[in-house]
Amino acid sequence: MPHTAPSSFSRRRFLGVATVAGLGTVVLASCGDSDESGGTDSKGRTVVEWWHIQTTEPGKSLWPKQAEAYEKAHPKTKIKLVPLENDAFKAKMTALVGTGKLPDLYNTWGGGVLKQQIDAGLTEDITDVVKDWIGDLVPASRKPYEFDGRMYAVPMDIGAVGFWYNKAHFKKAGIAAPPATWGEFLDAVKKLKSAGITPIALAGKEKWPGMYYWAYLAIRVAGVDGMQKAADAKDFSGDDFVKAGEHLKELVDLDPFQKGFLGAAYPGPTGQGATMGNAKAAIELMGQWAPNVQASEGKGLGADLGFFPFPAVEGGKGKATDVMGGGGGYALRKGGPKEALEFMKWFVGPEGNRALVTEGKMIPVNTKALDALTDPNLKAVSDLLNASTAFQLYLDQAYPPAVGQEVNDSVAALIAGSKSPADVARSVTEVAKSQ
């Protein structure tokens, strides 16, 4: 499932600065382009066709490098890489679902779309094959690919959303420590405004950055279990979800965002990333790719950049250690070659994962590679994930595509002032019921 609505600029493209998820040249190939896929080549090697979205550096070079290293150590296996730009990948996968045949090994973000592929009988249940080594991977990284206690993909990337803040701005505003509760967060926003500092950078045009606020507030108020119950019942009309919207409206009513935020994109010289990176706002709620985007789109904050988890909500059922995030993984088509999973075992094994961390600037998914992470910003996110008490996949990825789109649209409307908290809960429920 898309990590963002199809009409929005994909966040996953910015995971790429940290996890490289696709802004480059489109390579259009399909699993029908070669009769080698899942078979053998002229050298008698088993061919594993691997669709991925690493089309920018460092992944553009690192993925082939890793495949080549594996082939040298495993001469009976050929890894056939098929790199696709993010949107092209989604479009081609949608078309292939109708044919009933997917690539041997393909990129997935878990959630709704993977579940649809599983229900259609297109994706292999890999639980028994990976049971001896999958436990080495960070529990939160596995969560998006588990359904009914069964495993359907191998995670290679994991991250979490939290608040990135400008320490110098906080100091100027007299904020001694990052806020631990929603009430303290609102107080911090007021102090920043009083100090003449724009509190929050927001890409209102993109919709998904605003969704993060409502999603986290819902997680804090309803708890992750409450989120799951609502998803199962297709009913988000309960008081907890209305309260989430009311808390968000409390923030919106403080007018905390930069001038022109409703028309602001995430990338670009006037986007959310640049606004933070150029110290024109004090806070942004964003994933682990934020520091690199701030530096690439703006000047970057250097030692002034800090990170803190989304605060607890007073009286809520959720914990401050409940985390929302996501990542990427690779699934095996139904009946795909066993060599594909042998490659994945190596790819995310201790040494393979170390290469992704040190050369690809990614957060480790293998617990035995955690010591390879030295970047303090990414380490803060990794520590948050490893200490998490529950993990919630991004809502526009966890839910069926139409529901995820409605969450983004309705929350954007609340932020713009055209929908009430109750309207948001009602609209999301209506779309969920229609699925």
Structure notes:
- The structure is a single chain.
- This protein is α/β, with parallel strands linked by helices and 435 residues long.
- Residues 1-35 have low confidence and may be disordered.
- It has helices at residues 12-18, 59-73, 86-99, 111-119, 127-130, 139-142, 167-172, 182-194, 208-233, 239-252, 272-277, 290-297, 338-347, 350-358, 376-386, 395-398, 401-416, 421-434, and strands spanning 46-52, 77-83, 105-108, 146-147, 150-151, 154-155, 159-160, 162-166, 283-286, 305-308, 322-326, 329-332, 390-393.
- A 5-stranded mixed sheet has the order 2-1-3-12-6, with helices on one face.
- The chain contains 18 helices and 13 strands.
Helix fraction?
40-55%
Task: Indicate the structural class.
Answer: alpha/beta
Strand content: 5-15%
The total of beta strands comes to: 13
Strands side by side in the biggest sheet: 2-1-3-12-6
Shape call: globular
Indicate the mean pLDDT. Answer: 89
Quaternary organization: single chain
> How far do the termini sit from each other?
15 Å
Largest sheet: 5 strands, mixed
* Total of DSSP H or I helical runs spanning 4+ residues: 18
Kindly list the characteristics that best describe this protein.
18 helices, three-stranded mixed beta sheet, alpha/beta, 435 residues
Provide a compact summary of the structure.
The protein is of the alpha/beta class.
